[in-house]
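Students often ask why we bother encoding 3D structure as a string. The short answer is that it lets us treat folding as translation between two languages. Here is a chain of 125 residues written in the first language.
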Amino acid sequence: MPPLKCARARWFEDSEPGTVPPRSTPPVTFEEFKAAAAEYRAREDLRKEEEKERAKEKLAAWRRAHRTQRTRKPSIASMIAQAEKSGRTVSSVTTPDGTTIHFGETKPTEDTNPWLADIEKATKQ
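And here it is in the second language, the structure alphabet:
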């Protein structure tokens, strides 16, 4: 007979079939039960908090590993510098919203602006 079955047979040989032998310690009082239950709850709460912290750490590590870097658009100044570095002269730049910025020689404003011509005529008179 295996050792566990022998010990079990010796344990139950004095008791009637279907009954449990009497306890060797005094019964548990209600206060002891409440204290044991409170200790169990405290340990369970601590275990759950530790589990939440581990889950947060795992999530943060996953997010760090799977983070996608946003590619930023180069600024106009860096695009101009890059073009000039390659040997090209930049005379104008068109932005994505359709605005065109012209560089280089400035044109005299008197020739293109009729208002300035009218003001000059008025001041000479």
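Translate back mentally: The longest strand covers residues 92-94. Keep this in mind for the problem set.
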